[in-house]
Design a protein that fits this description.
With 223 residues, the protein is mainly alpha-helical. It is built from eleven helices and no strands.
């Protein structure tokens, strides 16, 4: 563990060289370095077994520097969670933007395939951040940016007459959790190879399309 004292008091030699690296690290990189170190340690050791001292040492900064960027380990966890969601959304948007704006089938297919790919490629980090970490409130689940992104796509398709979506937000919640469940099943059964990913993405896309195209003779009056 890194001592919590001032880094300027470290003796010359290897520790002194480490101090120089700490002092010269650009301020804008320190938060990122702390998050990267925490991410590695949380995956390797678990959240409970990782101390702030461990994170500071892994980032090559003094323990006091940690508190300049994060008031607690829980706050850093929240930042990791937000970063995961931000990157997830960015990659989903990039995948959809490679398709023609009016081709809603292709955009939905890209959303499904990319979402499954990202989840399975980052399952260890996802599990640490979203399963082991339990925030005091449910705001991140309710304000899920991935669901909001899918809601926007569903509303666009509905407005263009491509789908028939009565409640875009609720539908997006259902579809998001379907993708999450299929990904979790792939991990649980060890079926995460390339061919299996394609098979699951096809099944999800068919399910999504069927859910968004209700039968024309459906009797709404039965409600």
């Amino acid at each position: 563990m890194t001592p919590s004292g001032d880094i300027a008091t470290n003796p010359p030699g290897a520790d002194g060289e480490l101090s120089q690296r700490r002092r010269t690290k650009a301020p804008e990189t320190r938060a990122a370095a702390l998050m990267e170190a925490a991410q590695r340690l949380f995956i390797d050791k678990g959240i409970a077994a990782t101390s702030i001292d461990d994170i500071a040492a892994g980032a090559q900064v003094a323990k006091g520097t940690f508190y300049l960027y994060f008031p607690s380990k829980e706050a850093l966890l929240g930042a990791l969670q937000q970063r995961f969601v931000d990157i997830f959304c960015e990659r989903l948007q990039e995948a959809m933007d490679r398709q023609r704006p009016g081709n809603y089938h292709a955009r939905l297919k890209a959303w499904v395939e990319t979402g499954l790919e990202i989840y399975l490629d980052n399952v260890a980090l996802h599990d640490v951040v979203f399963h082991e970490y339990r925030p005091e409130d449910r705001r991140m689940r309710n304000d899920n940016a991935v669901i909001a992104q899918l809601t926007g796509l569903l509303k666009q398709g509905d407005g263009a007459g491509f789908w028939d979506v009565e409640d875009a937000t609720l539908t997006a919640v259902i579809l998001f959790n379907a993708l999450h469940g299929v990904a979790d099943d792939a991990v649980a059964t060890g079926q995460t190879g390339a061919s299996e990913r394609k098979r699951r993405a096809r099944a999800l896309t068919r399910f999504f399309e069927q859910a968004l195209h209700p039968a024309e003779d459906e009797d709404d009056s039965a409600d």
